[in-house]
Design goal:
Blueprint: E1 5-13, E2 16-21, E3 26-28, E4 34-39, H1 71-78, E5 93-102, E6 105-112, H2 118-123, E7 127-135, H3 136-150, H4 158-164, H5 172-188, E8 197-198, E9 204-205, H6 207-210, E10 223-225, E11 233-242, E12 245-250, E13 253-258, E14 266-269, E15 279-281
Parallel strand pairs: 10-13
Antiparallel strand pairs: 1-2, 1-14, 2-3, 4-11, 4-14, 5-6, 5-7, 7-8, 7-9, 10-15, 11-12, 12-13
Length: 293
């Protein structure tokens, strides 16, 4: 019987995306290489636990959940989360940023200084810029100030990011134009906390890192996986990787797989099995064939 592994999610390392597995195993993801796996027959998706601890009851979770946690473990995870505003005494310095995912899709957020751009890679930010750096609460107050003053959110659904990825401006300058204007408006505002040090504008572009820019860019995704199912399989050449998404060239076209849907399942290596997990057409995707699904 094939060795089964439980996925612990996708991480972005200095040299690219890496799938991690419960127990410490890691699988580097290289564009052009084949990625293929299957869910074990009769498998059940179970809660991944919280804060490094296993779920005490191994609760089942829905296949479409991107959190892969039961209600109790999700509550425990949020109870120690900077993003959920439940931690106020973190002594580390934080940075405030503007992240751009496509035309009209800009968000403001904060991330620990020590993490560098990892948080932006994890979110699938096509380009971003820093706004300032300081203590956590100063960064949080600045985030709220800019969210209200600039009219930008602090969250953007992954489905929206995925939908615009195929039609991004071709040049880095064009991709950075929107956050350049917002950065200028932000630094002109009054009311910034004194403890936060503003940073000059410098756009960082991830399009080439993700594989969605330049001569090596492959075909755009035409569909997305909605969930994994027991006995289902998917495999294809890795065309691009952005945030938690893998773009796989399957026999049914390029399909975007949100790797957060993999967590909690027992997975085995697959060979040439056809794609047999539920997928749906990406709204606005170019080149979708009639009757593809």
């Amino acid at each position: 019987m094939a060795q089964a592994w439980k996925c612990a999610g996708l991480r972005w390392a200095a040299d690219g995306p890496v799938l991690s597995w419960v127990g410490g195993r890691r699988s580097a993801l290289v564009r052009g290489k084949r990625v293929a796996f299957a869910v074990t027959e009769g498998g059940v998706r179970t809660c991944v636990g919280a804060r490094g601890h296993a779920c005490p009851v191994r609760a089942g979770v829905p296949g479409r959940s991107t959190g892969a946690r039961c209600e109790e473990c999700a509550r425990l995870d949020r109870a120690h989360s900077v993003a959920a505003d439940t931690v106020a005494d973190d002594p580390r310095p934080y940075r405030v940023y503007l992240a751009w995912f496509g035309p009209g899709l800009v968000k403001v957020g904060i991330t620990a200084y020590e993490r560098g751009s990892a948080r932006l890679l994890e979110q699938g930010a096509v380009c971003f810029c820093w706004l300032g750096c300081g203590p956590l609460m100063a960064a949080r107050r600045t985030e709220e100030l800019l969210r209200a003053a600039l009219g930008v959110p602090d969250r953007i659904p992954y489905a929206h990011k995925r939908a615009v990825r195929a039609a991004l401006p071709a040049s880095e300058a064009d991709r950075a134009a929107e956050i350049a204007g917002l950065h200028a408006r932000a630094v002109a505002l009054g009311g910034w906390p004194e403890a936060l040090t503003p940073e000059p504008f410098r756009a960082v572009d991830h399009a080439r890192v993700f594989g969605i820019d330049g001569a090596e860019r492959g075909p755009a995704a035409v569909a997305e996986v909605t969930e994994l199912v027991a006995g289902g399989a998917i495999g294809g050449g890795l065309v691009a990787a952005a945030g938690p998404d893998l773009h796989l060239a399957t026999e049914r076209g390029v399909v975007a797989l949100d790797t957060r849907l993999m967590t909690g399942w027992e997975l085995v290596a697959a060979g040439g099995e056809p794609c047999s997990v539920p997928v749906r057409e990406l709204k606005g995707a170019a080149g979708v064939q009639d009757g593809l699904f």
